[in-house]
Amino acid sequence: MRNFDYIRPESVPEAVAAGQVPGTAYLAAGTNLVDLMKGGVATPERIVDITRLPGLSAIERLPDGGTRVGALVRNSDLAYDPGFAKTYPMVAEALLAGASAQLRNAATVGGNLMQRTRCQYFTDAVSPCNKRAPGSGCAALGHATRIHAVQGWSAHCIATHPSDFCVPLAALDAVVEIAGPDGARAVPLTAFHLLPGDHPERETDLRPGELITALRLPPEAASFRGHARYLKVRDRTSYAFAVVSAAAALTLEADGRIGQARLALGGLALKPWRVVEAEAALAGQAPSPEAYAKAADAALAGAKPTGEANAFKIELARRVAIRALAQAAAGTPARIPALPASPFGIV
Amino acid sequence: MTATASPSNLPAGGIRHGSSIGQPLTRRDGPLKVTGQARFSADNLPPGTLHAALCVARIAKGRVTGLDVAAAEAHPGVVAVMTPQNAPKLAKDPDAKDGPFTFRLDLLQNDRVRYANQPIAVVIAETLEAATEGARLLAPTYAAETPRIGLDAGDVFTPPSVGVGAPPAESDGDVEAGLAAASKTIAATYETPAQYHNAMEPHAAVASWDGDRLSLLMPTQALAMSQGRLAGLFGISPEDIHIDSPYLGGGFGSKGVPAGPQVLACMAARLVGKPVKLVPTRSQMYGPMGHRGPTRQTLRLGTDAAGKLTALDHHILTASSSFDDFFEPAGRATSTLYASPALAIRHEAVRLDTGTPLFMRAPGEATGSVALESALDEMAFELGMDPLEFRLANYAEVEPLTGKPFSSKALRECYRRGAEAFGWAGRPLQPRQTRDKDGFLVGTGMGTATFPALIFEGMARAEIRADGTGTVELGAIDMGQGAWTALAQIAADGLGIGMEALTFRMGSSDLPNAGIAGGSGHTATAGGAIHAAAADVIRQLTDLATNDPASPLYGAGNAGVTVADGRLTRRDDPGRSESIADILKRAGRASIEGQGKAGADPAAQAAYAMHAHGAVFAEVKVDPDLGQIRVSRLVGAFAAGRVINPRLVQSQYYGGMIWGLSFALHERAEMDPRTGRFLNDNLAEYHVPVNADVPALEAILVHEDDSVVNNLGVKGVGEIGITGTVGAIANAVWHATGVRVRAMPITLDKLLG
């Protein structure tokens, strides 16, 4: 590992000041960053350790009915917070379906948003990769694997975003609160992660020196609590990234029809894949396999494989979306299943 | 090891006084391991030790054209950079072969790259961090050539031998005639991918030189063989090499021979004149430490109308490296499992630009039985026969290829007990017939397990003392299988003393050579040597007593006494006995020492086929829309001769069955065919099962007596659990879905339909 300077600021303004120097990375739990540093993929010259910053570890219910989660809240703490899990059950389920218990105990909310892609050509530190070495090319093109994108990719990058947590957050219109040299600002999560386009090296909307301070769930996010599920298809039951995942949330009217619908898919693109047309197709409909299928078709519109190995993900994602919508319509279970988000996690 | 860290000083635990063999002792090393007191090789850092880090090739074929040695040397803390320019000259070309267990090693003798992750330099530094950064700063440049990756990439040839010295082709009868005469035939091709051992513990080494004497803390499955290999490379005597290997964090074959990086640690220590510790990273273990070679296997079966095999033909295509030979002997199970008047096995191979494959837990049987057990299942369905009935109809009463009788074979009982415990009866023959209450497809499948009962050369030393205590010692190895416990049980019984009176030593090259802990033959080998050494002691002790008129045993003759509970007792009169302590005291002896040997009995081997057997039954559930698979139940019934410790044996069966699940559903090394680099050389992406994937497991120990196989009547249990399980799961997935997946692992995309 390359030597680096280590700075431990006392406050958010101090951290932001320290973070403005080029070549600086913020360190929270380091579950992703430190691995990348060991592999020579991330080579920061300065590490600003934010783990002891005050005021970033609270889960607060806001007067407007929303919730603010500090950037340093640990994944496990958030998932097991009774109020949070009850209000945003699919977020809790996604958290518990991610990584391993040890990683969840360490990983933070803010860090999860900053998770880098697990594309093998990015993490091997030597292959051409436009994300790691802009302009060097994309080695994944020509040998795409099952982890590569089928939505939103470009000729310069076919990577996917690995997070489970971000998928239901995108569906619930979560907002990212950011502190920066020019003050505080807020960005919708759906606009926070950037598709690769011509500049895959730009991964988020964060500007140099900016620091995530909190995640906010707007008041209406709580209205889905009775009909919200996260479903994750994966190659093993735990400690595996999603092959494809879906967060589905509904409100049901008194007559049984769908009021509002939310649907976001994971494992397909460099950001959680949310299509408002898919959600609009469900509004006002009676819950039915046909209605789910229509929505799923809309969510997968324009999907295109990047190789033989991932073509199956399009049809699989369609089925996962349909299943997740059906599960959401059936109602949030009283308890998170023993195998969270698993197709076999039926309670 | 300090006194407190030695399992030999552990309390024996709640066992009955008397016979130790057959009792379910818990691991004597268990408390040390769970409390962190057991020191694995890499846990050691003797004073003054420097750290070494490997720089490995990121191409699979070509030459290294440049290393920025100056940059690495300039990094603070870096002490030396070892490259082909300055690497110590070896006494022997590491590519020279002097036996079937000598594998070619890449030891910085030239600039050639033969596979990805091949070591091309070693950086030695005061800290691990400095060494690691130094290795990065070397920034190698290459002249790369196009690598050959994948079974279709090379020219097919017939290897001179497969496995360790087995013939590439064997046959009995006329397969083509048998197929022509058959009323039903099938032909199917199955594939198994390259797999990596992925022992939790890396192939670490802490090496130090004192003149021409080498001390090594290093995990190895074979102490004396390691000494021999290192002695040859360094031009010193094996006796001048001391290796300590008290615990292994798994070996699975990959620690059966010294790995190149372990030798590099010795070279680095010689270069800098200080002790050096080298611990490869996980990804650096994908290449120089061996792997299970990929296979493509075609089975052709013919049967008569009654379901009796008329022909069984097994063709295997596998791969070795460009520069050395290890060919996965995937035909082995076929030679021994089912009776057929015509049987043919043929191995062919290609050479690829990868590291050399090696024996990996159940080499040959694991890969071969996937194809064989799947093909049996496919044929049973063609015949409209229950898969178990079909296997019973073709039960081999003698070993098919050789015609030899089995030394023992309780496979029928395994089938019966396994089927009964599983609830096999009444299973529908048609696939995709059953759903559970949640709508998941449910299927069941079975497979036969088999593994040869091997024994190697081994020696042991035993001593009994006038205070009634004893010592047994030998260079045996515990790689997690429980040798510290099971071998001590044999030792205690052999000397007729309780475990509390026994000092048991192993895991060091200073002790008598106990052979390799591999091939499921270590309990037979090391245990057999212990048994013989203890018998030698007791024979001498008996001579003292039975020739001494003062002894109540006088005149009983050597065969006329038995030993137990610290006493010799007349066989014909249990009332006449004398304690070991009294016999020695009266003879004025402080102790008696004995030696023992174990090894194959050529006459028995010529006359008998010796194998362990088993039957594995699997139940799986499959999501009909999403393809996700869950093994819900595994039941295995195994017969492997005498059971020394049922708890440990059961653990071995569990471990094997879980490995089989891993083979069936998870494991696959992925490489980019363009570069030969790995795409999943880490434990996040190279999947093995997690606890949540492991189903309800049941392992039934079927009684089997075998007076021929070896002096203890034991067969190995370390590998057999894999062999039936993979096929059982593959067959259950077919039964659940109607989809026959012939390429392992069975992943959800293959079931989407």
Please give a structural write-up.
The complex is a heterodimer of chains A (347) and B (753). In chain A, the strands form 3 sheets. In chain A, strands 4-5-8-6-7 form a 5-stranded antiparallel sheet. In chain A, strands 9-10-11-12 form a 4-stranded antiparallel sheet. In chain A, strand 2, helix 2 and strand 3 (46-49) form a beta-alpha-beta unit. Chain A is built from 13 helices and 12 strands. Chain A starts with a strand and ends in a 17-residue tail after the last helix. Chain A is of the alpha+beta class and 347 residues long. The model of chain A has no long low-confidence stretch (mean pLDDT 97). In chain B, the strands form 6 sheets. In chain B, strands 3-5-1-12-9-10-11 form a 7-stranded mixed sheet. Chain B has a 5-stranded mixed sheet with strand order 7-15-14-13-8, sandwiched between helices. Chain B has a 5-stranded mixed sheet with strand order 16-17-25-26-27, with helices on both faces. In chain B, helix 5 (223-234) links the parallel strand 10 (213-217) and strand 11 (241-244). Chain B contains 15 helices and 27 strands. Mean pLDDT of chain B is 96; it is low at 1-17. Chain B starts with 29 loop residues before the first helix and ends in a 16-residue tail after the last helix. Chain A binds chain B through residues 1-3, 38, 40, 100, 118, 120, 124, 126-127, 139, 142-143, 145-146, 233-240, 243, 312, 315-316, 319-320, 322-323, 339, 342-344, 346, and chain B through 58, 76, 129, 132-133, 136, 438, 440, 621, 623, 625-628, 630, 665-666, 670, 672-675, 677, 679-680, 684-685, 687, 689-693, 747-749, 752.
In brief:
The complex is a heterodimer of chains A (347) and B (753). Chain A is α+β, with helices and mostly antiparallel strands and 347 residues long. Helices cover 27% and strands 18% of the residues of chain A.
